[in-house]
Amino acid sequence: MMHIYRYLRLLCWTTPILIWSAIRLFGLVICLSPGFVRFVWYYHVTADRKPIHFARESCRQTLDVYSIKQHTDQSPALAAAAPVVIFYTGGAWMMGYKMWGALLARALNAAGIVVVIPDMRNYPWASVPSMGNDTDKSLAWTLDNISSYGGDPAKVVVVGQSAGGHVACTVLLRRANRPFLSEEEKSDTESCASSESTEYASLCSNWSPTDIKGFIFLSAPLSLDAMDHTFGRYGFDKHLVDRMFGGDRENYDPHRILSSLQQNGHQSTLNLPPIRIYHGSLDQTVPTVCSETFYAMLQNVVVDRTQISYTCYEGWSHTDAILEGPMDADHRFHKDIFHAIQEWTNDSPNLIWSDDDPRNKHRLCPHFLVCAARFCNPF
């Protein structure tokens, strides 16, 4: 009987919701089509972009490196090393793609910042634990290799949006939790090189949270309990969510991980880099309570509260900061990333944000079409 109920729910509830969301998404794309044409041209033609494999288990394990264009005969490796942003895109764990971060790369490149945008396997081809492994491996690859592309591995900042922010945050916290693992769990990590299915396989590489100058999370589901209403509204029942999280949802919930660290008395020795959290007040996909709840817990766990902050963008939706805003020449979020990098890397003299740069000054899409896109946006 339960199987019949699930199929009926899928047919009569989930499918119509997904179709309606797809129609609205199609409307958004049509409205922003003038901007998307320039977006695609930048991605495929004008950007100094290099696609690279960071692992070989899947064709999705690639990343794009957006280098700073050189104005001399020097190679990127010989030029002055620039700060680096690693950006993990959203996509509901099912439709994320590295290309979605091209607008962020375009804006930050103009300010003298190298940008790395990794891809990762998506559901149903992989579950969240495997996505975490991909995130960990791409981060380790960047720290080991970015100096060959003009970036400074000692000045790396990680930015994660939506589902990408959730996975990146989970990887950060699980790695910060590594010193507190049991001996059995630590022995599991030693064999992870030969087993992708190991729970702590993402701890194989040897980077630590202190190797990162700071983490920035945008509209990320940092508390999965607060996402239950959203999952239900989009027709995702408990069984689908459990499969998406590999049957291990609790161990991939950032808020629960923090709560566990606090209950076990580890907060006094928890070593995390600075963290900034941003969220749109009109986000209908990931409620602001996800960020607010996580931020409140983070204040109780970290040693130095001045190293964490939470900012709510009034009037912005789930995608405004990375899509509609930049299309309308509103680079508020990109500027916030820029100022955070200046603060965390002490690189103020070498970084310049220019509002007169054509990449920041001009709209990619007429304002009235951006407004129409916001009306169609299903997120």
Q: How would you portray this structure in words?
A:
This protein is an alpha/beta fold. It has a single domain, classed as 3-Layer(aba) Sandwich (Rossmann fold), CATH 3.40.50.1820. Helix content is 43%, strand content 13%. It contains 14 helices and eight strands. Strand 1 and strand 2 form a beta hairpin. Helix 1 runs antiparallel to helix 14. The longest helix has 30 residues. It is globular, with a radius of gyration of 20 Å. About 8% of the residues have low confidence.
What's the quaternary structure here? single chain
Element order: H for helix, E for strand: HHEEEHEHEHHEHHHEHEHHHH
The average pLDDT value, as a whole number, equals 85
Number of helices, counting only DSSP H or I runs of 4 residues or more: 14
What's the CATH architecture name? Answer: 3-Layer(aba) Sandwich
CATH homologous superfamily assignment: Alpha/Beta hydrolase fold, catalytic domain
Structure class: alpha/beta
- Backbone CA Rg: 20 Å
CATH class: Alpha Beta
- Helix share of residues? 40-55%
Distance between the termini: 34 Å
What's the arrangement of secondary structure elements?
Layout (H helix, E strand, L loop, with lengths): L1 H30 L1 H14 L2 E5 L8 E5 L15 E7 L13 H9 L3 E5 L9 H18 L5 E11 L1 H14 L6 H8 L23 E5 L9 H6 L4 H7 L9 H10 L11 E6 L7 H14 L6 E6 L10 H4 L4 H14 L12 H4 L5 H10 L3
Helix pairs in contact: 1-14, 4-5, 9-10
